[in-house]
């Protein structure tokens, strides 16, 4: 039985998810919940190794899609499904919406193939709630500028991130019950308040 909660954070690189993931993790731990804070690609020793390859090695789009779903499969079977089954709250930095946005939108990879891989790898498992941090790619790029050596995705141009952003918004339109749109170019306190209100409205606290 799934008594846990599965919440994901999504958005283009530089959208500012981490601060709010940290705050939510802290608040839920203080409230006494078992919290599993994790990320994709990653979250298991194998998936973290795949992440290194995914972010840094040149590869074609199909390899990219297969690799991220392989990492996801390991993450789901080893960490996420057991956590949800025992009632833990799973807080995940990115999930399959990122694959549709980056591989489907950004790279232009076949969405039907992604849907097939999605159902092979995760069956009917979907997040209970997804916060989509939305902001103009130019603002996100300015935030990231000079932060560190960019990976294969961070190094993409703004046109790529426009496509990623559009596909996130499309995905949200297809699953309106699951998504909450966050205007991520607002002050941090405003974003935190919006997240708190959305959680309260769904009875998550
Ligand atoms: P992160 O830096 O937010 O942890 O995400 C890693 C990068 O991987 C980010 O640029 C988005 C990208 N990514 C994909 O392209 N497809 C995916 O399915 C996932 C989960 C991430």
Overview of the structural elements:
This protein is an alpha/beta fold and 205 residues long. The chain has a single domain (5-201), classed as Rossmann fold. It has helices spanning 17-30, 45-56, 61-85, 96-106, 111-122, 137-144, 158-174, 188-201; strands at residues 5-11, 35-39, 89-93, 129-134, 179-183. It has a five-stranded parallel β-sheet with strand order 2-3-1-4-5, with helices on both faces. The chain is globular, with a radius of gyration of 16 Å. The two termini are 21 Å apart. Bound molecules: thymidine-5'-phosphate (TMP). Thymidine-5'-phosphate is lined by residues 13, 39-41, 68, 93-94, 98-99, 102-103, 153-154.
Bound molecules: thymidine-5'-phosphate
Q: Could you state the CATH homologous superfamily?
A: P-loop containing nucleotide triphosphate hydrolases
Q: Termini separation (Å)?
A: 21 Å
| Largest sheet features | 5 strands, parallel
Shape: globular
Q: What is the second-level CATH architecture?
A: 3-Layer(aba) Sandwich
In what range is the share of β-strand residues?
5-15%
Q: Count the DSSP helices.
A: 8
């Amino acid at each position: 039985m799934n008594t846990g909660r599965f919440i994901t954070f999504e958005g283009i690189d530089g959208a500012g998810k981490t601060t709010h993931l940290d705050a939510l993790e802290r608040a839920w731990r203080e409230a006494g919940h078992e919290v599993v804070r994790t990320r994709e690609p990653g979250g298991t020793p194998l998936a973290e190794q795949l992440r290194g390859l995914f972010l840094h090695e040149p590869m074609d789009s199909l390899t990219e899609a297969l690799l991220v779903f392989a990492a996801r499969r390991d993450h789901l079977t080893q960490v996420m499904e057991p956590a949800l089954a025992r009632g833990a709250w799973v807080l995940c930095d990115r999930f399959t919406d990122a694959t549709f946005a980056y591989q489907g939108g950004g790279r232009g990879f076949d969405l039907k193939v992604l849907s097939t891989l999605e159902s092979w790898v995760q069956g009917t498992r979907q997040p209970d709630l997804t916060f989509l941090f939305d902001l103009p790619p130019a603002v996100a790029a300015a935030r990231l500028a000079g932060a560190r050596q960019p990976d294969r995705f961070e190094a993409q141009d703004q046109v790529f991130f426009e496509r990623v952003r559009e596909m996130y918004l499309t995905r949200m339109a297809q699953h309106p019950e699951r998504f909450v749109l966050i205007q991520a170019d607002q002050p941090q306190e405003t974003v935190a308040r919006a997240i708190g209100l959305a959680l309260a409205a769904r009875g998550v606290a």
